[in-house]
Amino acid sequence: MSGRAAGPAAGLREPAAPPGLLGRVSRALSWANARIADASMAALVVAALVLTGSVFLRYFLKVPTEWQDETSVFLLVGAVFLSGAHVQSHRGHVSIEAVAGLLPERANRVRLLLVDAVSFFFCTFFAWKSWALLREAVAEHETTNSSWAPPLWIPYSTMAVGMTLLSLQILLQISERRVRGGARP
After folding, report:
1. Domain boundaries, the chain
2. Labelling 51: which of 43, 45, 86, 105 has CA 20 to 30 A away?
3. Is residue 13 left, alpha or beta, with left meaning phi > 0 and alpha meaning psi from -120 to 50?
4. pLDDT in tens, 5-46
């Protein structure tokens, strides 16, 4: 049993988008995912700089920093959730191929469809709950319990948007596979 990265990292090329509406949606989501991935990379760098700067300020200059932990967490939550659709678009997640090698081609296509369907329903449920949390945080002006007390709509919004984009990406991949006749990209 081996774990491997699927997608461009494994040398696979991204297939051309299908024609028509599905292709336009695919290209639009791909464009959005690329911009969000760039922003997520920047957020990771900023989070690293914030944490490094806070260590320097606290231990060498004795300046208190109440804001750095939550800032870093908010940046990391945003980067992780918002970049999920980009990773999924390249099938960049780690997959275990032990079962795939044992199954006939048709059974493997069914397995892939089932995995995508379960992933879609889970991500859709997660997105729905994230939107509910966001609505509640905005309506009740919820903040964190720290002395800085930033609003909770910030991380909840990135969770909601990120999981919605991930759900759309999975649905798009299921639809594209159906258009291509079940072939795996």
Report:
1. 20-179
2. 86
3. beta
4. 444 444 445 556 677 889 899 999 999 999 999 999 999 999
Q: Which of 30, 1, 28 is CA-nearest to residue 15?
A: 30
Question: In degrees to the nearest 10, what's the CA dihedral of 68, 73, 78, 79?
Answer: 90
DSSP state, residue 8? G
Q: How far apart (Å, rounded) are the C-alpha atoms in residues 43 and 75?
A: 6
Q: How many residues are recorded in the chain?
A: 185
Here the tokens at position 29 are 């989501």
DSSP letters along 80-134, please? HHHHHHHHHHTT-SEEE-HHHHHS-HHHHHHHHHHHHHHHHHHHHHHHHHHHHHH
User: Tokens 């791909």 label which residue?
Assistant: 30
Q: Residue with structure tokens 């920093």?
A: 65
Residue with tokens 């980067």: 79
**Tokens describing residue 168:** 């759309």
Q: What is the dihedral of CA 112, 118, 121, 124, to 10 degrees?
A: -70
User: What does the alpha-carbon distance between residue 132 and residue 125 come to, in Å, rounded to a whole number?
Assistant: 11
pLDDT digits (tens, 9 = 90+) for 90-102: 887 766 677 778 8
